[in-house]
Design a protein that fits this description.
alpha+beta
Length: about 100
């Protein structure tokens, strides 16, 4: 799914189950199912949200930076998150 723009998330009850995306290469919409969904907005979306008070949270609604950067919390640089999050995902069998 390279060069695709997600246009809609698919629900199965109260759980996200996939997405509809537009393939820029093919020029058409495609659908895909997924066990997990990771929203990656790049520096534009994530930094914009952070600047207006957005907080990165886990599925239990706990702020991630509170756990991984307890002293700095929401002010912690986002570079602190990839290592601990990857280990957590690996432990859960996401990779």
């Amino acid at each position: 799914m390279n060069h695709c723009i997600a246009t809609e998330l698919l629900l199965d009850g109260d759980r996200y189950a996939g997405a509809v995306a537009f393939s820029q290469k093919e020029g058409q919409f495609i659908g895909t199912l997924a066990k997990a969904i990771l929203l990656a907005t790049g520096s534009n979306g994530s930094e914009t949200l952070r600047s207006v008070g957005g907080i990165l949270r886990n599925r239990d609604i706990d702020p991630l930076k509170k756990r991984y950067a307890p002293k700095m919390k929401a002010l912690a640089p986002r570079i602190l998150l990839p290592g601990p999050l990857r280990r957590k995902f690996e432990k859960a069998g996401a990779f």
